[in-house]
Amino acid sequence: MSATSAEIAALRRRYLWRATSVAFLSITINVIYVAATGAWPILWRSAGIGLLLLFGVNGLIARQLFEPIRRFLCGEIAFDDIQRRLTQLPLLTARYVGLLSIVVVAFQTSTPWWIPSVRLILPPPAIADFVTICIVLPIFFFTYTYFVVSDYLAGLCEFIFARYGLNLGLFFGSYTAKLLVALLVISVAPLATIVVHLFSYDGERLQLDILVDVASAVLGVAISAYFISRSLLRPINALSRAMTNAAEGDLSVRVAVTSNDEVGELTGRFNDMVEGLREREQIRATFGRYVDENVAAAILRRQGDGQRSGEIGEATILFTDIANFTTIAEYLAPHELVGVLNDYLETVLAPIRNHGGVVNTFIGDGLFASFNMPLACTDHAVAAVQAAIDIQCAVGSRTFGEAGVALPTRIGISTGPVIGGDVGTGRRVSFTLLGETVNLASRLEELNKKHGTRILVASSTCAACGHRFAFQSLGPVAVRGLSESVMVYSIDPSQQGGQQPSV
User: Fold this and answer.
1) Which of 112, 193, 299, 434 is most enclosed, with most CB atoms within 10 A?
2) CATH superfamily of 294-496
3) How many whole angstroms separate alpha carbon 134 and alpha carbon 107?
4) 249-276 burial by CB neighbour count: b if 16+ within 10 A, else e?
């Protein structure tokens, strides 16, 4: 949502007050000086020049500096057209304040030299004192304005980020330079003035000037230190809070970039990092809808680590398929068919996951699951057989979808060595399992149709399970794709405490 006219006016008004607040600081220092010296008759002249230049002229300049930003807020120009002005707003404002304050300070300090009435009230300053004040005070006013407007800029950037979703992208400032300038001006400037006065005056004049120096320094340093600390620490505190939220799992967090220095650049990179993590999480969540979330996480982790090589390990492979699915699909509407399949797969997935298996991929109306790869699974052969029994008990006792369709399921299981790794080229990469064990499990699933069974397991799986289940031997069976017959076993779910589904 764009900013309203009232909000834009408030933002400009706040900036103008920050930019011209140096005029009131100058007047306050003048009041301290005339109060200490008793030179009240010249206050109007000193204060007047400060108001004229630091408030009046400076206010007009500040309005012009803010004009492009106002036009952006009104939607008249693009953000890229004002981004540099935005990042340079504190520096530009402070630069004009520094130039104007040189004129103001020079006028105020030199009046005893060229106005006789003032000379009667105040003695002329020493040359060293005049030069020092004309250097120190403008630098102090410059620094004060820079950090006051920087603090304002942080709020403005937060507003732009909240309303327009835009962040600064130009980083040419230096946090170290800002910190050094702040420390030098706060600490060195008052000391330099006091040292010059110590060598320029003595007696009552010395005491008076040092009193003015100390009083002005206490006031000016206190105000400046407040805005300096806010300007330097505000973005760091915001970044720290965001990092804490991100560490706690909140990947929706983003931070407004409020400065053009290293901290601003770090904030921008933090936003990019969180965006990348959020996209990665979305990919993992989306991928997990089609492939088991654990497999998706493993794939992303391997790709993130740059691992593409395969690995060999012992695993138990489980294939499922729906008997007579082609016939079932002929009399169902597409939306009914999808609803039936989703309901069915949700039922089949639960036992697999409950027993520590992961689904590698869906194959039409069936699926390919693995136990012990890519995730470790104790007694993986037992876990796979028990998952198969639970699947048969679950699907044999119910119908699926609004159409109320029964879906008899065939399952093939094999245990042995498998090869796992990322397969593919370019951007098309997936994690898969390969090997004779995988092929055998697939073939055993198909053989259920020939033998009128629901679960067939290889001899390797039977041996790994020991006496945990009541297997029935079918003897040596010829398996498509294998040159030699293999020993095959069936298992009746009804004899394992479940209910045998109808064929």
Assistant:
1) 193
2) Nucleotide cyclase, GGDEF domain (3.30.70.1230)
3) 10
4) eebebbbbbbbbbebbbbbbebbeebee
- Helices 262-290 and 293-304: crossing angle in degrees, nearest 10, is 140
Instruction: Give CA separation, 461 vs 131, 315, 415, 446, 488, in Å.
Output: 95, 10, 5, 17, 10
Whether the Cβ atoms of residue 347 and residue 410 lie closer than 8 Å to each other: no
Place of tokens 């990348």: 276
pTM above 0.85, yes or no: no
CA distance readout (Å), 181 to 42, 48, 132, 140, 178? 33, 30, 18, 10, 5
The candidate with the shortest Cα–Cα distance to 366, out of 321, 328, 425, is 321
CA distance linking residue 266 with residue 239, whole number of Å: 9
Q: What are phi and psi of 296, to 5 degrees?
A: -60, -45
Q: Cβ contacts of residue 262 below 8 Å, gap of 6+?
A: 171, 174, 175, 176
- Chunked in runs of 10, what are the mean pLDDT values of the chain (503 residues)? 89 96 92 85 89 96 96 93 94 96 93 77 84 90 93 93 90 85 80 82 79 80 82 87 87 88 89 83 56 58 56 92 86 85 88 89 84 89 94 88 86 93 61 87 91 92 91 88 85 61 33
**Contact yes or no for 192/140 (Cβ under 8 A):** no
**Count of residues in the chain:** 503
